[in-house]
């Protein structure tokens, strides 16, 4: 089984494209990434405003 390794800049680009309104399936198909990888990157690189006032990455 082949394991793809993607550089951080590529991951952040896909996260930003998703934030701009591109769909998950569209990004997966266009860039050849798995749904699990893309979901992980979204959780990893997205800021979430927590009710306690802290930002979680």
Provide a descriptive summary of the structure in words.
- The protein has a two-stranded antiparallel ribbon with strand order 1-2.
- It has 57 residues and is mainly α.
- Strand 1 and strand 2 form a beta hairpin.
- 54% of the residues lie in helices and 7% in strands.
- It has one domain.
- It is built from 3 helices and 2 strands.
- It is globular.
Secondary-structure map:
Blueprint lengths: L7 H12 L4 H8 L3 H11 L2 E2 L5 E2 L1
Antiparallel strand pairs: 1-2
Give a summary of the structure in a few sentences.
The chain is mainly alpha-helical and 57 residues long.
The percent range for helix content is 40-55%
- Rounded to the nearest angstrom, the radius of gyration is 13 Å
Number of helices: 3
| Beta-strand content | 5-15%
| Alpha-carbon distance between the two ends | 30 Å
> How many domains make up the coordinates?
1
Shape: globular
Question: What is the subunit arrangement here?
Answer: single chain
Number of strands: 2
Walk across the major sheet and give the strand order. 1-2
Structural classification? mainly alpha
Major sheet characteristics:
2 strands, antiparallel
Order of helices and strands: HHHEE
Task: Give the low-confidence spans.
Answer: none
Query: Averaged pLDDT, please?
Result: 84
